[in-house]
Amino acid sequence: MAFEVNWSDEARLTFDNNIEYLRTDWTEKEVGRFVQQTEQAIKRIEEQPESYPPGNRSKRYRKARLNKYIVLFYRYYKTKNQITLLTFWNVKQDPSKLKY
After folding, report:
1. Would the pTM count as exceeding 0.70?
2. 3/80 Cα distance (integer angstroms)
3. Which domains does the chain have, with CATH numbers?
4. From CA 72, how far away is CA 33, in angstroms rounded?
5. Positions in the chain whose pLDDT score sits under 50
6. Are 31 and 23 in contact (CB under 8 A)?
7. Backbone dihedral region of 31: left (phi > 0), alpha (psi from -120 to 50 degrees) or beta?
8. DSSP 8-state secondary structure symbol assigned to residue 53
9. Which of 11, 54, 59, 89 sits most deeply, having the most CB atoms within 10 A of its CB?
């Protein structure tokens, strides 16, 4: 059973910020790889939302590592058949700013 996936405003913003960063400092190939990794992770989350581990701070959130530097945090609501993508976190950021 596939779950409905919703993007939070923060997820859209942080995804776009990561794309922008890759476009300025890396190649289009890297941008394409990031988009592909994201699509694959979202598809896996839709089909098996518990396949990624819980976050460190709260078991309500889960984290999907997309690559060496980016982690997608999401929350799923089993009773509603919904998943909310929360943020795309760059691990080089200050961890005290992470809410999840």
Report:
1. yes
2. 9
3. 4-91 (3.30.2310.20)
4. 15
5. none
6. yes
7. alpha
8. P
9. 89
